[in-house]
Amino acid sequence: MPLTETASALWITRPHTAEIRPETLEAPLDDQVLVRALYSGVSRGTESLVFNARVPPSEYARMRAPFQAGDFPTPVKYGYCSIGVVEKGPETLRDKTVFCLYPHQTRYVVPASAVVPLPEGLPAQRAVLTANMETAINGVWDASVQPGERLCVVGAGVVGALVAYLCAQIPGTRVHLIDINPERQALAAALGVEFCTPDNAPTDQDGVIHASGHGEGLRLGLSLLGSEGRLIEMSWFGEGDTALALGGAFHSQRLSIKASQVGQLPAALKPRWDYRRRLMLALELLKDERLDHLISGECTFDEFPQAAPSLFGPRSQALCHRITYPVTG
Fold this sequence. Notes:
- By secondary structure, this protein is an alpha/beta fold.
- The chain has eight helices and 17 strands.
- The protein has helices spanning 44-51, 130-143, 158-167, 184-190, 215-223, 249-252, 275-285, 304-311, and strands at residues 3-14, 17-26, 32-42, 69-70, 76-77, 82-88, 97-100, 107-111, 115-117, 150-154, 174-178, 194-196, 205-210, 225-233, 256-259, 295-300, 320-324.
- Helix 3 (158-167) links the parallel strand 10 (150-154) and strand 11.
């Protein structure tokens, strides 16, 4: 297969350090596409753990992204939210703007089945939220939210905000989005969700969905539940340990903790749902222009290595950070 052109990709070369490296592309086969990236989205939760080399060895295989190159901890090419234009491939896909679970790279060749055209009405700039929306949908499914329930979502990052946004649209449901940063109230208001800080959080909740990524948030979430209440844990702590008080109310009120992870569909839905159907739903749900409030910053691909340390640092307040790509690749 002849080598046709080169591309550039972001590699995490060692903990806390990224650089742009050249990539050689092979000509696409008949069942493949060549995609020129327009945008990619940065998932602060998982990608922060990868950038800081905090993926536990036990999770190296499970945490591989679909088109990841290299191995954990480093060097590794990682990412899973690329929006681009098909330059070569089957006629039905050529010139279409598509979503692909690909790392941060200017151009790439993948099977045609790995890309999904964006639906009409979804701007490419907003589609960088696709992977986050899929995670949020899975969290709502795992939480089994019912009409009229009282719920708290702890952690107003992108995933937490999306979960609250989705739950608030279930009839009769009362949802509070909780965060230690009072400035997230504006985000909650833009999404049509009630907001409060931890000291004002309501108690006696039917359910809590935790997405803060911090042990303090998980402990807060447990304290807000009423009898027989359930907590859905959406955070991934990587190598970190989290202490919980499982005596007292946890035991006497029969509370429960359940993990939600986007890599697995809820068992009850598997007879009718697959990953592609969930992805199509996520793309449709992103048509709401209010969701643009979740994109808090942007930089060019060339600027990404310099921006990464602060973006993935412990004091970062970024929501979704968007990467823009050069027209020529």
